[in-house]
Amino acid sequence: MGRQPQPQHDEYAEASLQRALAEDDGLAEQGIDVIRRDGLIVVTGEVESPQRRDAILRQVSEAFPGKEVRCEVALIPVGKPNGAEDVS
Q: Residue 45 belongs to what domain range?
C-alpha cells in the first residue's frame, strides 16, 4: 500500500487573502492571519468589533468555499482615552 498523494493547493492563497483584508477599504485589518491547518482554515488576530470579525470571516469563507473555517479572532474593545496624555 502506497501513501495517498497530498492535495495540491495554492501556497500563496493565504498571503493573498491577508493582503486583501489589509487593503480592503472597509476593513483595513493588518493583524489577521489566515492559516491552513489540519484540513481547515484557521483565522487568528484581534479586531475591535464583532461586525469586523464577521466581515473578515465572510471574506475568508468566500475565498475558500467548501472549507471549514475556524475563528480564533479575539475582540479587543477600543474605548475613549482616560484623560489627557502628558507629552513632555
A: 31-77
DSSP character for 28? -
| Residue 62 near residue 56 (C-beta atoms within 8 A) | no
Kindly report the length of the chain: 88
pLDDT in tens, 42-76: 999 998 889 989 999 998 998 888 889 999 999 98
40 three-state secondary structure: strand
Query: The domain spanning residue 71 has which CATH number?
Result: 3.30.70
Dist. CA 15–CA 12, nearest whole Å:
5
For 41-84, the three-class secondary structure string (H helix, E strand, C coil) is EEEEEEECCHHHHHHHHHHHHHHCCCCCEEEEEEECCCCCCCCC
DSSP H or E run through 35 = strand 33-37
Asked if 52 and 27 touch (Cβ cutoff 8 Å), the reply is: yes
